[in-house]
Amino acid sequence: MADLVAEVQKISPVTRFLLGSSIGVTLAARLNIVSPYNLVFLKEHVTRHFELWRLHTSMFLGSMQFDYIFELAMLYRNSNSLETMYYQGRSSDYAWQLVFACLAIIVTTFFAIRRHSSSSCCLFPASKQATRVVVS
């Protein structure tokens, strides 16, 4: 156990936070501790019900499939290389860059999503002409 803790502590701090948040949020959803529906960004829930955790958890919820292992490996590789090469000794600058990028994504999503019904969100409005298929 001490070896595992030592290996985790070798990871750069911002990368460790990204991996820990992603693993924590995704495992909580995957193990049905929390419903994935309660973790995703839904504009109405954030603005009317003040469910502000959705701003954080929506950034870290993984795919919950086998591909998630590869997503984590890519996240580790890319984040660690950025933090140790480009932001060497300036982890706080890297963290602020990620905060601003996440804020930009949330603001863009907040204004881009149009609500069509109580059960679905979509980025693009539905077409004015609805086609009806009649099955005989």
Automatic annotation (TrEMBL):
Localization per record: Endoplasmic reticulum membrane
Membrane topology reported for the UniProt record: Multi-pass membrane protein
Alphabetized Pfam families for the sequence: DER1
Keyword vocabulary terms for this entry: Endoplasmic reticulum, Membrane, Transmembrane, Transmembrane helix
GO CC field: endoplasmic reticulum membrane
Coiled coil: none
The keyword Transmembrane is assigned to this record: yes
UniProt xrefs under SUPFAM superfamilies: Rhomboid-like
Domain of life, source organism: Eukaryota
Regions crossing the membrane: 17-40, 94-113
Biological process terms in GO annotation: response to stress
Protein function: May be involved in the degradation of misfolded endoplasmic reticulum (ER) luminal proteins.
Similarity remark: Belongs to the derlin family.
Protein name per the record: Derlin
